[in-house]
Prior knowledge:
This protein is an alpha+beta fold. Helix content is 32%, strand content 27%. The protein has 14 helices and 20 strands. The strands form four sheets. A five-stranded antiparallel beta sheet has the order 2-1-5-4-3, sandwiched between helices. A five-stranded antiparallel beta sheet has the order 7-6-10-9-8, sandwiched between helices. Strands 11-20-19-16-17 form a five-stranded antiparallel beta sheet. The radius of gyration is 48 Å and the shape is elongated. The protein starts with 8 loop residues before the first helix and ends with a strand.
Amino acid sequence: xxxxxxxxxxxxxxxxxxxxxxxxxxxxxxxxxxxxxxxxxxxxxxxxxxxxxxxxxxxxxxxxxxxxxxxxxxxxxxxxxxxxxxxxxxxxxxxxxxxxxxxxxxxxxxxxxxxxxxxxxxxxxxxxxxxxxxxxxxxxxxxxxxxxxxxxxxxxxxxxxxxxxxxxxxxxxxxxxxxxxxxxxxxxxxxxxxxxxxxxxxxxxxxxxxxxxxxxxxxxxxxxxxxxxxxxxxxxxxxxxxxxxxxxxxxxxxxxxxxxxxxxxxxxxxxxxxxxxxxxxxxxxxxxxxxxxxxxxxxxxxxxxxxxxxxxxxxxxxxxxxxxxxxxxxxxxxxxxxxxxxxxxxxxxxxxxxxxxxxxxxxxxxxxxxxxxxxxxxxxxxxxxxxxxxxxxxxxxxxxxxxxxxxxxxxxxxxxxxxxxxxxxxxxxxxxxxxxxxxxxxxxxxxxxxxxxxxxxxxxxxxxxxxxxxxxxxxxxxxxxxxxxxxxxxxxxxxxxxxxxxxxxxxxxxxxxxxxxxxxxxxxxxxxxxxxxxxxxxxxxxxxxxxxxxxxxxxxxxxxxxxxxxxxxxxx
Length: 572
């Protein structure tokens, strides 16, 4: 049968209370105790008298033997060996005004509070300030004097004690307890932490963990400092199992209830991650439990070890969010590439058969800087105009992505409209294009070459900051002169661009390209142009598309950071 698992805090607390009550009843029966847990005792008992020193509610701590000739201090001295921590009987040393200025060690036991400290019985007959020079500065001397003056006990007075020994300088923190014995003081002291406790504290701090023990019979709860730090509680505020149940997040109550139910049944369940609300903050703890089993096979105490996973959980959440955002960006980039590629295919022209009839063969190619990122602002245009001239243009709109594709489309369409103005030369078209970009506040810079090939095979061309065209004639490839080149589009409104004219011959191959073909990081662009020129020189006698194939075979996209557009025009 599936064990019952509480689903809410109230049900879980009722289960805990029922199990605790059952354990206590069984323990009473096994011990032969009354129902209230007390064994048989006299009907009446004298009420406890408070200790004269004010340190407790029980009978006085002094010797009760008032026989004639009995020395109570000898009796006290005789008990010192039974004290498990360093202990000594101290007699005050007073000045002429009756003020306590020091103490003399009258008796002591053999217990060392630290390995490098002398035992009190080695200090008998010596002054306190002699054996513990820091007693005055640490306030111990005045605290012991206060015990004599007020009669009230001293509890856990901390002293940072430092001593120079033959093997070096030593320091430890000692906790002193003291009470008056007539006109003397019985003092005990111990190290605030022993080495194993310090290691335990360091381990809890480093591993963000702590442990707790819940005694089901007495109700006593014991927490380590690490667990108190996790739950932000003081040493006097240690949560019961019921109070822990109230701090569990509602959706995690079944998980916590399953763990407690298994422990109360005497099992050792696997660990569980449970979220708690700690001072309004959600903290995730990994809990591992262990039941303390009695001889009857039933647990009478529960031990829990908790490791705080809050920082790790938050790191995992941030990593998951980063991955989610990265995946979203990847999907958006892929969608953008698909849209841009579709736009490019729709916008870039096919090569008209009309041009072939005029004895001009055109081939074009687009080379992305990255294999899967066919997105950029490179464009070209080659078409027959109504006046019989061939419009030839190539350009590069600044940037990448859909915005660059949009600017590329705007510039192509603007040129297509302006080019229909009758008998407009290349310089005038380039000037108009510059004015359009300068007048658009959203526009960015761009480069272009715009030209016409007339019926006499003359190329009239203008340049706006673009690399020079290359002309292959026979076996010689040269770059056209760019002395008339003007600035990039969008920089200087009102600039008048001029054109230059080149006569083309049958067999000539004209190559237009964008700067991605010739620019390399850390190199002058003229070096890239020279490499391209030498490659073009090997294309003698090839058709336009064959020449592009050879050029692209020598192209190294891994060395580029920009896209590239190529247009080859062969005059037949």
